[in-house]
């Protein structure tokens, strides 16, 4: 989102998604080497963002895995305005993954945006990132009337690229030297089907009129 | 900011000193804040009415080392650093150490310069050197002073080229020079001082060589430093560094000359720079062995030499890229210029080289600052020179077309990522201009047809220009699609539709090219026939078909690839993507959005794509062997490009890809039921035509 970039000081990095999936056709070796925690899929509990007590958990996870220096205000911007789009994954009381998103009007399209996605290393490759966290957010975006979903990912993050590719995202653009470390990014985009293109599909949920799409939404602070 | 902090102890400004404005009254809120703090819970915030969370994201957290880069500084101002002896002049009282340290500074600056070119800010790279920031401080030290001067002048020259060529955000950080002293007093005369210093050191070198051979002891020349055993080594190490700077500066000045007049001279300086880089590399062993204690003690010495070698590598690449620019023939041909940029971009040149090319190509709104775009366009459209004088150039849409051509040249000089985006968006402009020109021409034609003589000329000009605009539009679309491969924007699942789209675009491109060329050859024929009936006509025809045949081979290759991917999918060798959220239709819409918006080509949709690929299977591919055809045409047409090594190489690549895919397809067909047969794709023979690799797992 170029608008953000311009409005933020240059040394504050861009949002990115970080999640390790398997590359297409490359199963095996890598997977075995990873020190995975033994757990049943049913042991993972998913919760929607529930309030200020979740904030340190999200911040901690993102700080661990991503290098960009986000201030607490960055997190609050997302989770306060779009709490319904943020999810946390817990295993035996420990937060092991999270997704943070937003949605709003962008050049005459109502679009969703995945800002951060983190699953801690030992829990990767088991579909926590994809099937659960991201799809939950995307579903809410779809039901809220989003026409598309976007995000940025480092070109070197093969895991994330494969993950989003499987969900139907295309690499719409390459962003030259996007991150502070000089690495390029891909702008990934997922276009939802339009009802007129697919008359057989049921109509998408009506646009969520009351949604606080604009960046100037009311703040829930005191 | 930092300076303020250092010079003034933190003090609360006197409250009375803030005057009230028309609409505001300043009041002390400390008691209120204090009271509120007592009542605040964690996570709560006091804010004004205009507060919003989006703006709050831009907040910097003071004292967080990740955000507040200032807290890592030892000194808060330049003066404070200098007072504490951080950048002494001379660097050392001991002359040998001084020379060693100056060489370290030179090498450090070279590394900083390369880092700057690679996209970091000037302030954090070259101008992190305190000697550059206070030009007057080095006055007493001729060697250091001359070097700092030439560095400043070089940075200024490069900055101006990049700022002038400015086309997008890539340069933002590069051109930000804040209030840095880019030009010290007399920096424009940096070369005379540099020459003088070089002359002195050359004499010192000659003198020490003479004394070592004991032919003559020269007393009158003061030595560079104290140790006679090291004199020669240090003189040499300094000389190559100074000479590199001299030639590099000369090179930049030569390239700046209008209409490419300095290119030949620039090439000589490039050769000189390259040989000095060689000497710098050779001097590193001597310098390492004799490194001064200061740098021997810490490991920095090794890292510094790693940086030096990386920097030299960068400069070598830059020099090669600049040399490629200087090799431009400056032929007055738009087509040649476009092909030249595309070829130049293949070596992935960095910003500085690309900016230089752009400035060479477009100066004062003319090609190479010399040839008017209108006449270049009419010539590219195959019109005789009489058209160059025609009134049509005053037509507003022709002016608009000229601007589009200039923009195209500039866009082709940008990095691939930006280039693709801009080319995609530009397609609509070309389409709109085509329609506008067509309408304008119709009107003018009706007007002109009143005089039959003018009528013929006008009609011809319109025909040619319209055909050329269309051809150019499809050329841009072709490049847009190809760049997607270079940028890795497509996944295996997209290949089928991407090659299909490339195929339909190529058909149009070939069609328009053929039309335009046959129009030109018609006029050429008429001309020659007037002179004498010659059998040369046949030769012209052959030339024309060669260019179109070259495209033809790519048409077959693209179609073949598209059908191969379709067959692999239809025969279940590739598992199609099953997204829970959308279908292939949405992927198609997104991938070709910009092309579709510009109707490039007309009447192409997802439905047409599906129609042409849904029935593809191994059996149909056996009947119509696209790869064999591509290979055959590529082989045949080679003889027409004997004098064109680039096209020859491209034809060879096309042949290879076609041949390999033909074999792979046969293997797939034969082993259709073999589940162990694994197929993968690589760009080992061509940057955007994939080669299928079949393996038994």
TrEMBL record, chain A:
The keyword Lipoprotein is annotated on this UniProt entry: no
Domain N-acetyltransferase: 42-193
Cellular component, GO annotation: NatC complex
Keywords recorded for this protein, A-Z: Acyltransferase, Transferase
Pfam families hit by this protein: Acetyltransf_1 (PF00583)
PANTHER family (UniProt xref): N-ALPHA-ACETYLTRANSFERASE 30
UniProt similarity note: Belongs to the acetyltransferase family. MAK3 subfamily.
Name assigned to this protein: N-acetyltransferase domain-containing protein
TrEMBL record, chain B:
Keywords, ordered alphabetically: Cytoplasm
Entry superkingdom: Eukaryota
Keyword Kinase: no
Positions of the UniProt region annotated as Disordered: 1-20
One GO cellular component term noted in the UniProt record for this chain: NatC complex
Annotated InterPro entries: NAA35-like_N, Naa35_N, TPR_NAA35
Positions of the NAA35-like N-terminal domain: 42-183
Domain NAA35-like TPR repeats: residue ranges: 325-692
Location of the protein in the cell: Cytoplasm
Main location: cytoplasm
Family: Belongs to the MAK10 family.
Name of the protein described by the UniProt record: N-alpha-acetyltransferase 35, NatC auxiliary subunit
Taxon lineage: Eukaryota, Viridiplantae, Streptophyta, Embryophyta, Tracheophyta
